[in-house]
Amino acid sequence: MEFLDGHSSAWLFGLAAALLATGVVAGILAGLLGVGGGIVIVPVLYHLFTLLGIDESVRMHVAVGTSLATIIPTSIMSARAHRRRGSLDRALLGKLIPSVVAGVLVGTLLSGYFSGRVLTGIFAGVAFLVALNMAFKRDGFALGDGLPGTVGTSFMGVSIGGISTLMGIGGGTLSVPLLNAFRTPMHTAVGTGAALGMIISIPGALGFLLSGLDVPLRPPATVGYVNLLGMALIVPATMVTTSWGAALAHAIDARRLRQVFAAFLAFTSLRMFYGLLA
After folding, report:
1. Residue range 142-148: average pLDDT?
2. Using CA atoms, how far apart are residues 190 and 184, in angstroms rounded to an integer?
3. Does some domain include residue 73?
4. Nearest of 151, 132, 136, 172 to residue 40 by alpha carbon
């Protein structure tokens, strides 16, 4: 295949092994912590592409586009599972879908204009805020009883869709804590967030695929900004190892684990900021 030309077998094997390891790590952490794989996949891919010498101009775009593509099958399966368990609130989902889709379209459009440095800065900034929330959120904290009015709900949906698309995450990282802060029961917030991940990832991945066509300096086996090798290896690994993480969660102090993951996110965020300033 032409898009694999120019790289040695050892280099390609190393890339495949690293992508498979990315899926394993993302799946285990997703199962352990209940977070979407994207919040793990994007920074791991970013650092992997840095080590492999992928050009900075496309590094973050490919990490985000590939992450969104990997979220499609996992979010569909997750949403179906939550629907069967009755934890997907269709009425709540219906209120959010129009504004979330609008946010995805805005995020996809902006991604074509933003440089890799801008995307990196957005991910680093939001990841740091997520880390702070995970580390210091107080039990029982609430912004209100029920969703805000039409304008407030629309703003929330656009923000979830737009920021999630630019970050390459499925939306659960943002939607679950926000919905829970408006006193949506956690199981319902997680189930609804899984459905939003499907709504965000499909158009988001398609947008990154189209906007990256014919862009130079991308890694091998990449169509648009979606790395096909990454998607083929990360998705199966994530789907298998998520159950491992869920099993481990019962044997580990969940609060302490979330603090450790918050530290990982904070470190990743600061490392990305350092790279932007260096």
Report:
1. 78
2. 10
3. yes
4. 172
